[in-house]
Amino acid sequence: MPGVVRTVVLGLLIAVLGASPAWADWTTYHADPGRSGLDRSGGAPGPFGAAWSAPLAGKVEAEPLAYQGLVIVATEGNDLYGLDAASGHVVWHANGGPAVPATNLPCGSISPTVGITSTPVIDPANGELLAVADLLDAGNRAHHTLIAYNARTGAELFRRNVDPPGATPENQLQRAALNVSSGNVLIGYGGNDGDCASYLGYLVSTSEAAASTAVNVWKAPSSNGDAIWGTGGVAVDGAQNAFAATGNGFDTKAFDHGESLVKYDANARELDYFAPSSWSSDNANDLDLGSVAPELLPGGLAFQGGKNGNGYLLDTTHLGGIGGQVFSAPVCASFGADAFAGQTIYVACADGIRALSVDITNRRFTSLWHGPSNANGPPIIAGGLVWVTAFNNSRLYGLDPQTGAVRVNQSTPSMVHFTSPTADNGRLFLATDASVEAYTIGASTPGTPVGVGAPEPPLGPAPPTVNPPSRSGCGRLSFRLDRARQTRIVRVAVYLGHRRLTHRRGRRLLKASIIAPRAGSFSLRVVETTRLGHRFTVTVRFRNCHQVVAHSRRRRHR
To answer: Is 262 exposed, middle or buried (0-12, 13-18, 19+ CB in 10 A)?
Structure first.
């Protein structure tokens, strides 16, 4: 089709599709239709460490998906990549067409182009990968297009316009993650960041079948606002009912479905709704209920947070209208999506992740712990830990699910807001501004942090992460080079005293790793040289395989 490019590396494709590991697959945002964020792949626990890094041609807002040995990621340039989960090599690549320049939109926070913003969805029943791309047509106008691909090969299957009838496409951002219900794709719409121009909340339902062109639409009963914009998008229960939360409306007198949790059938017909009693003041103060996706729980319950700082426990069989919650209590202002496992909800709080203990029988929740204040991304549960990003500080945390204690503290390349990782078969995949980073994950030894707890140096490489000790030393030390904030790194060397342990050259180096020389106390120097001739040095001291101090300096290489 015109404007579509697809590249397949045949040798890798055969290797991946014939691979022997059993992948549980992460086919939708936060793993399953109910948005639990729980990895069920059963990968064997192992030490935390960097596995690979894959550069991408474009910024990533969507969460990666994992499917049959592939990691699938979408970009704001309308590119989709199928990466080998074991190595990061490109197995297939497809481009849906020209993305919309940010300057064509009335406002927003995504630049330089807006393409595929939402997390796509894979229907495991037929292997279809479904994504919504913001495309620029020949008349320089934007349109939202559903494109279906073969998830194993990247071959395009069909495309269909899914702009809500009567909407101005430039005013509508499709950020909410897609979901599938009874053979239909569910697509939520809101406005651009900044609440500019005139926009509405819409839920579009359209068939996965190529032969069907039917598009059913729920339109918020409002003159403006009521966006379905939370990153986690629409949640779907076992009966194929869909649930989506809306943001603020602009009417403080007549209720217009702003600040609501709405229940739909698979065709986007409204069945029920809930709104807090504070909906009017929440509208007036931009305190969106829809800043976070609903979290579906056992026992016919749902948990809904939002910007107003409260958490609401709801009966999904009877949402109760205004003030209809079965329980509520102050929690935090939350964004994106939460996670759930056992009897615990892990809430994506703006001031740091919180854990809540849920009593399903008595329909109550209580606070358990509060994590690091900058750990504010949507969490997931994998490898015995709760994983959460500090997207404003370029860090990845692995937390003890019982106590919130930090077990992994890893520096990362820069990320967009609301970044959430993906996990499958013993690996964790993190989309950054322009790459996918892969890590091996596992339950750490209690009380022993893995990774680096000290702040990142302002220049030069991120300090090393350390795997648990081996019998001969401290294991492998991995050095991820902070190329996201500086110019291209072309040479890196690691020294123990005057002895050089490793030395690499390249056009764009991303990382280096060595086997630690011994298990006692020692200091390492990591020296990076940029293509402009600047040299960065980080000196890191270790005692019994634990970092005790790090400092950095920069000088011009002559």
So the answer is: buried
* 53 occurs within a structural domain: yes
Domain span holding position 474? 465-556
Cα 12 → chain centroid:
26
- Looking at the domain assignment, is residue 58 inside a domain? yes
Instruction: Read off the amino acid at residue 102.
Output: A
Q: Say whether pTM exceeds 0.85.
A: no
Whether 379 and 240 map to the same domain: the answer is yes
- From first to last of its 558 residues, what are the pLDDT tens digits of the chain? 434 444 443 333 323 333 333 336 999 999 999 999 999 987 555 689 999 999 998 899 999 999 999 999 999 999 999 999 999 999 999 999 999 999 999 999 999 999 999 999 999 999 999 999 999 999 999 999 999 999 999 999 999 999 999 999 999 999 999 999 999 999 999 999 887 889 999 999 999 999 888 899 999 999 899 999 999 999 999 999 999 999 999 888 999 999 999 999 999 999 999 999 999 999 999 999 999 999 999 999 999 999 999 999 999 999 999 999 999 999 999 999 999 999 999 999 999 999 999 999 999 999 999 999 999 999 999 999 999 999 999 999 999 999 999 999 999 999 998 999 999 989 999 999 889 999 999 543 344 444 433 333 333 334 444 443 333 345 556 555 544 344 566 677 777 776 766 766 666 666 666 666 655 566 777 777 776 666 777 776 665 555 544 455 544 443
Provide DSSP, 93-104: EEE-SPBEEGGG
The whole-angstrom separation of Cα 245 and Cα 550 is 45
Could you tell me if 71 and 28 lie in one domain?
Answer: yes
Rg (CA), the chain: 23
**Is 457 part of any domain?**
no
CATH of the domain at 219: 2.140.10.10
Cis upstream peptide for 112 (omega within 30°) = yes
Q: What's 507's domain CATH number? A: 2.60.40
Q: What share of the chain is helix, strand, coil (3-state, %, to 5)?
A: 5, 45, 50
Residue with tokens 């996706």: 293
Task: Say how far apart CA 512 and CA 462 lie, in whole Å.
Answer: 11
Q: Are residues 203 and 315 in the same domain?
A: yes
**Positive or negative torsion for Cα 240, 306, 167, 141:** negative
User: Which tokens go with 451?
Assistant: 């990774």
* Cα–Cα distance, 120 to 131 (Å, whole number): 5
Q: Which residues pair with 488 in a beta bridge?
A: none
Phi and psi for 15 in degrees, rounded to 5? Answer: -65, -40
C-alpha 557/C-alpha 520 separation (Å) is 32
Measure CA 33 to chain center: 15
Tell me the two tokens of residue 319.
């949402």
Residue 459 lies in a domain: no
Is residue 386 domain-shared with residue 486, that is, in the same domain? no
Measured in whole angstroms, the distance separating CA 292 from the mean position of its chain's CA atoms is 13
Give the three-state DSSP class for 10.
helix
Query: How many residues are listed for the chain in this entry?
Result: 558
How many Å apart are CA 475 and CA 47, to the nearest integer? 10
